[in-house]
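Help needed: design a sequence for this.
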């Protein structure tokens, strides 16, 4: 009997930002990677840019009823990563119902449905990683839905790590990731305000967050953890 081959890494939200950085890291290690976003052509194009054994598929988490069909061709999954986000700017005083429903649906119901759909096709040593964010602890103006769903991710980890045992389930909650597409183009004063509150004296990077993601996915003892990766930002 030979060694068990390593399984596939599926990254929903793998066409951009941190998810893409993680896909590049695993593809660089010779692993089989599937990146997913809302659009098949974009996902396939990104997969081609990443190279190695990377393929791209369309999975729209904001349409949970379609997620199982979208994932039907994916099997042998060792690591499932849910990194997708469709940020809204929302406040209770001027509540944008459509934006709130879209984000809550994709981040909480969509994440869970993707897990449900892939469960029968996870390998015996599988692990799952959800992405939240530190808006759960440190809200900003307009973060009402983002703060809400990131808090929801914390609860999702607790229930899934117990319900799905022995499959490991963890979440990573980044601080402000300075070189991510979502933040790199923000006004310098905005980024400087974050840097000034970060004990490192600089913003964290996508590469560092991808490294923490790989640790959560691969360390067999780490389970049910909501890990903040923020350079100490919450301390100041
Ligand atoms: N960047 C940061 O500083 C930061 C801070 C805190 C938390 N986070 C968290 O870290 C994770 C990654 O963030 P990021 O900034 O690196 O991401 P990003 O660059 O904004 O990319 C978002 C990803 O989500 C996908 N996506 C959007 N709507 C989707 C949907 N309905 N169904 C499926 N996929 C969808 C996008 O793919 P398509 O456009 O191809 O559909 C894209 O791959 C997110 O969960 C975010 O909340 C990030």
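Sure. Designed sequence:
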């Amino acid at each position: 009997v030979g060694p068990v081959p390593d399984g596939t890494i599926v990254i929903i939200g793998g066409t951009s930002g941190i998810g893409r950085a993680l896909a590049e890291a695993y593809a660089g290690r010779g692993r089989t990677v599937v990146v997913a976003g809302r659009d098949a052509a974009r996902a396939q194009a990104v997969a081609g840019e990443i190279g190695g054994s990377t393929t791209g598929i369309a999975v729209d988490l904001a349409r949970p009823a379609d997620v199982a069909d979208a994932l039907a061709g994916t099997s042998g999954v060792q690591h499932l990563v849910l990194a997708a986000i469709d940020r809204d700017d929302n406040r209770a005083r001027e509540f944008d119902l459509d934006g709130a429903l879209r984000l809550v649906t994709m981040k909480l119901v969509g994440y869970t449905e993707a897990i449900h759909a892939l469960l029968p096709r996870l390998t015996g040593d599988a692990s799952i990683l959800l992405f939240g964010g530190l808006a759960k602890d440190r809200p900003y103006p307009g973060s009402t839905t983002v703060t809400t769903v990131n808090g929801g991710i914390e609860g999702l980890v607790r229930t899934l790590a117990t319900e799905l045992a022995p499959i490991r389930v963890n979440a990573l909650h980044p601080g402000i990731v300075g070189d991510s597409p979502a933040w790199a183009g923000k006004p310098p004063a905005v980024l400087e305000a974050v840097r000034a509150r970060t004990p490192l004296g600089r913003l964290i990077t996508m590469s560092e967050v991808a490294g923490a993601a790989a640790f959560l996915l691969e360390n067999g003892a780490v389970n049910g953890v909501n890990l903040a990766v923020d350079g100490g930002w919450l301390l100041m």
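The chain has a mean pLDDT of 97.
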